[in-house]
Amino acid sequence: MKKIAFVVLLLAVGAAAGRAQESRQDISLSGTGIIAPFMAGTTDVQVSANRAIGALLSYRFMLTPSSALEANYGIDYQNTFHYTISNTNNYLINTRMQEISGAYVRYFVFKNFNPFLEGGPAALIFVPIYNSGTKTLDAKQQTSVGAVWGGGFAYEVSPSFDVRAEFRSFVTKVPTFGDTALVTNRWYKIGLYEPVVGVAYHF
What we know:
The protein is mainly beta. It is built from one helix and eleven strands. It has one domain (about 25-200): Porin (Beta Barrel), CATH 2.40.160.
């Protein structure tokens, strides 16, 4: 009886290991930092934003052992946009930025250490927060279409889990929040050094 139980245990462990090796999907949760640059428009508008923190939820489906498709949803806690018009008029808009994006991911596999590059389309949703930090109540929610790209590495700590670290960047038009006075006619590169650190679960 003990031998039969031992054989059954070995078979169960072998099946679990086989499933782990055949994992083609993973989901990850990461913390992010948002770093936005100063931007001088072709108009008389200048814009800058403070740094912010947020979270990123990602799903990857492996096409091959070295490539995957990725879907992302991200949100930050609060980001303050500062618009200056003609060096005199100042507008502050507290914003919650959300990300919906997809990307192609290319891995370079070195045992447990897997560097990767990624890129794809993205939509950024800028939602004004009407609190004491927002100085204009005319600001409206805006969705901007652009692109995301980045690079980093995944370190496999077990067949089911890995730790990921990455730098990402977005490019999109500078948001105007529906106010024609805030038009810059510029493209905005957000998070050129946006750090992303998290944990992924493979299944």
